[in-house]
Amino acid sequence: MAGAGFEFVSSIVFFVIGGYYLDGYLQSEPLWLLVGFFLGFAFAFYSLIKRAKENE
């Protein structure tokens, strides 16, 4: 689980940046930024749980 922290943070950052650019394109600030944050957090948490179950 050496890269779990990096994977957690990078997935949140990836989705937030995607939401930021989608907001700029659709001019709907801050809707997609927030959606990106929560999707990134959900994906990161899912990934963390999946890694933990693999290492049992």
UniProtKB/TrEMBL annotation:
Q: Which organism is it from?
A: Leptospira levettii
Q: What is this protein called?
A: AtpZ/AtpI family protein
Q: Which Pfam families match?
A: ATPase_gene1
Q: Is Transmembrane one of the keywords UniProt gives this record?
A: yes
Spans through the membrane: 31-49
Name the InterPro entries on file: ATPase_put (IPR032820)
Alphabetically sorted, this entry's keywords are:
Membrane, Transmembrane, Transmembrane helix
